[in-house]
Design a protein that fits this description.
Chain lengths: 324, 160
């Protein structure tokens, strides 16, 4: 543990991940970790880079910009530092770097990372595409077929780093797309990594089985078709898969017609008992899933599933969860 | 925490001290047209520029446009010493209006050239006609696309 780590009077939760550098700078100045002179020096570097970028944007033919456009350029300038400092994954390390490294160097490291991430996201998307789930859910197909190409061809880290130039509404297993605490390239990277893992998990199941489960989901929600609904496919598949495990089904079976048996078997279980059983049953699949990143991604969902199941058992609404 | 660019920089990244000196330094050139600006006038123009940038919700970052406007309009046949500073202040506001209304498709030089041409010909030195009629028409034409220019001009001719 270094000196800074011992004395930091704020924590990661006090920072704003969507505006990391500035929030960190504010906290450091307020707590005397960074002095006024250094803060002014950093402001000067940001100001110079902003001016240079704005001049590039206007091709040096305009001396002013509408606030909205200038804001995008200014945030793009700071985004370079955000990307680098966030990549450290450690508040103390980020503060140390901010204190002891020339801010121009931080920006340069951020720029290099952006180039790397831009290359990475294409690979992530291609891997996600390889295991794309065959289905007719509009938002999923838009996200898989159109959103990424729209982003990739028009993304500008220099002038609008926080924008994505596309619209993604499809939620991931854990949260809606609008709930990610990052923007621009970082959002795309995080979002499509989740989608890639979800697709890879779903690829353990047959397309026909997934289709049937999605059709059942539509019926539960009083809809003829599921195509226009907004839900996460992996969540529906996982719910049915985990419910199947509790019934002693083996392999990757997800077709449920026995909610009544499930109810009989678990209605007297406490939430903790259900959680422990689900964790244990799912744990047996780690060897088959192999991919550690995938296992780490899915593992927290077992408790979410257990809570949902417990509630439906208590309310006798199991058929509204996994069908009859 | 307010993270906006305005709270970080204010609306102008140009240092006003230098600008005031720059404005006064144009007296060497403008004197031959019988026009000069005092230090007080220059301070007023710096403030007018800052206010105009703010009122039109813009950020100024490059070389101030005020000196470009002075350089161009000192040649005007309609500006006299008694209203020189005040006219430049009004022209600065017209300039940012034109930038906004043309959706930033006009460069600074193009905007100033168009303003000057209108001021000297159709507006006959009237700021009111310049902003409300001539520049408004030019900006509308730009927004609608060049093809509409003839129709627009005809419509304006009928109106006026």
């Amino acid at each position: 543990m270094n000196n800074i780590e011992r004395i930091l009077p704020f924590s990661e939760s006090d920072t704003d991940r969507r505006n990391y550098t500035l929030s960190l700078l504010t906290l450091c100045c307020a707590n005397g970790i960074i002095g006024n002179a250094q803060a002014l020096e950093i402001k000067e570097v940001i100001s110079n880079l902003f001016t240079e970028t704005a001049e590039q944007f206007t091709k040096r033919e305009s001396s002013s910009l509408p606030v909205a456009t200038a804001e995008k350029i200014y945030r793009s300038t700071l985004y370079r530092a955000d990307v680098y400092l966030l990549s450290l994954n450690n508040l103390s390390a980020a503060v140390e770097i901010l204190r002891n490294t020339d801010f121009r160097e931080i920006l340069a490291r951020g720029s290099n990372l952006i180039v790397k991430y831009y290359d990475d996201v294409k690979k992530i998307y291609q891997r996600a595409k390889k295991s794309k789930i065959k289905n007719s859910l509009y938002e999923y197909n838009y996200m898989m077929n159109r959103a990424f190409p729209e982003f990739y061809k028009s993304y500008s880290a220099r002038f609008d780093a926080l924008g994505t130039n596309t619209s993604i509404d499809y939620p991931t297993l854990y949260k809606p797309a609008y709930d990610f605490d990052c923007d621009g390239l970082l959002f795309i990277r995080e979002y499509y990594t989740d989608i890639m893992l979800e697709n890879e998990f779903c690829s353990f199941f047959s397309s026909e089985d997934i289709e049937k489960v999605l059709e059942t989901y539509a019926k539960i929600n009083n809809c003829k078709k599921y195509s226009s609904l907004l839900f996460n496919i992996c969540e529906v598949v996982l719910d049915n898969f985990l419910a199947g495990l509790l019934l002693g089904k083996s392999d990757f079976e997800i077709i449920m017609h026995d909610s009544e048996i499930l109810r009989e078997k678990y209605r007297l279980f406490t939430l903790e008992q259900i959680k422990s059983t689900v964790r244990k049953e799912f744990g047996q699949y780690y060897k088959i899933l192999k991919n550690h990143q995938l296992i780490s991604y899915l593992r927290p969902y077992t408790d979410i599933f257990s809570e949902k199941l417990y509630t439906h058992l208590k309310n006798s609404t199991l058929s509204a969860f996994i069908g009859d | 925490m307010d993270n906006s660019i305005i709270s970080f920089f204010g609306s102008s990244i140009i240092k006003s001290g230098n600008l005031q000196k720059d404005i006064v330094s144009f007296n060497d050139k403008s004197a031959k047209y019988g026009l000069t600006l005092s230090n007080k006038d220059a301070a007023m123009l710096v403030k007018a520029g800052n206010d105009a940038v703010k009122n039109h919700e813009r950020i100024e970052f490059g070389k101030s446009v005020t000196t470009k406007i002075i350089e161009k309009f000192m040649q005007s046949s309609y500006i006299q010493q008694k209203d020189y500073a005040e006219t430049i202040a009004q022209l600065i506001d017209v300039f940012y209006y034109v930038k906004d209304q043309s959706e930033d498709t006009l460069t600074d030089d193009e905007a100033i050239d168009k303003m000057y041409n209108c001021f000297e010909t159709t507006s006959n030195g009237s700021i009111e006609l310049l902003i409300n009629r001539d520049m408004e028409r030019i900006c509308r034409t730009i927004r609608n696309g060049a093809d509409d220019e003839d129709n627009d001009t005809e419509a304006e001719d009928e109106q006026y």
